[in-house]
Known about the structure:
By secondary structure, the protein is of the alpha+beta class. A six-stranded mixed beta sheet has the order 5-6-7-3-8-9, sandwiched between helices. The protein has helices at 22-30, 66-74, 106-116, 121-126, 128-135, 150-162, 180-193, 206-212, 230-246, 269-273, 357-360, 441-444, and strands spanning 5-18, 38-51, 55-59, 81-86, 90-93, 168-172, 198-202, 215-220, 223-229, 281-283, 292-293, 298-307, 321-330, 334-335, 337-345, 350-355, 366-367, 372-380, 387-398, 403-417. The longest helix is centred in the middle third of the chain and has 17 residues, at 230-246.
Amino acid sequence: MSSNIALKAAGLGKAFQIYRKPQDRLKQMVFRWNRYYEEYWAVQNVDLTVHRGETVGIVGRNGSGKSTLLQLIAGTLQPSVGTLSVYGRVAPLLELGAGFNPEFTGRENVKLAGTIMGVAPDYINKRFDEILDFAGIGEFIEQPVKTYSSGMYARLAFAVAAHVEPDILIVDETLSVGDAAFGQKCMRYIRQFKKDGTLLFVSHDTAAVTALCDRVLWLDNGMIRAEGATKDVTFAYHAALREEIDGGGFSVAGRRRHHPVQPSRDLRHEKIRKSDKRNVIEVFEFDPDAPSFGKKGGTIDYVRIKTAGGGHLAEPEGGESVTVEIVCTAQAELTNPIIGFLLRDKLAQNIFGDNTYLSYAEDHVSVAAGQQFKASFTFQMPYLPPGDYSIAAALAEGSQTDHVQHHWIDEALIFRIAAGHVTHGVLGIPMNEITLEVLTKEDME
């Protein structure tokens, strides 16, 4: 067996016994030569080889066998058929807080989890302060874990797994629990771990799978439906889901549209323009000295609102198609930059916004140091109630789940709206059609 292999499965399968009636279990125990159950095969005919240092993503719908396969690899389930060989210490992050005793304190559960993973108590004691600092649960470490929130469970479980120096790390949707700051801390650890360790990563967030994984395994009804390059498998998986939703006749074709069709205007737009409710936006100059933060590996040069065709827009209005343009300069080489914006009201509540990540997640854009680059967001401006508003602009690097914030400018653009027809809600959506009909008896039949 090659020392480069982390795990190898051949013909792996797991069946569960399903009993229709409780008394059938008792019958099975007494009359073992008869069969009072039905078999449900959660995993079937899985052949898989993972090499050391690989990051393998596993995708599939709920019930496709992903978690069962990971439990087999973690050793918490035994296979019904086939062979499975795992080389090295495994740190599984499967079910939330699996292996924790709810009556034990957090401190006691750290020691228990370490023992289950095969780590000596002295080693856990030596690294306990680091584990506590990573988890960030403070004095709750001395409380029974049954009093913990789901986020605290996840924090403590991940902190233990991160500090037992595993050879193979298994992550199954653990990052979906907890706050964004802890999620980013976990993603930073995962990115560092995957430089040398072996990672099995299960997530419904295919953007995270694409960003992290070297290749992907697609499970469907417990069997491997596809295995290969991350981009190809995740694309096929999305296409299959869309085909199921849309029904027959689904095809994948076309290219990214760089010149979107001009949206139709609100049918009331001209009436609104001629009334005292005209939704004119008075835009002030970009303020480079507005409150900001970031590592400054790249900086935002300016933000402006233009016409959808790229021309100067003296007085943008609600209902019109506009472009928010953000121009940046790379102070150092940037890999996978993300540019985004948020439109906020005077109370700093986020009304809407977007960023470039999803449009270019698979393109791996890089920008050399000293080079300028820009993002353009073209959309139909909603109608906004009278008041003061601002646009916050941001430049980051990485992915939506794990990124470095290089430059964030609050109130990069300030604008004011003196009048508008919106009296309820935070904004008005441009309408393509509004009808009012008086129905006859025949219409009602």
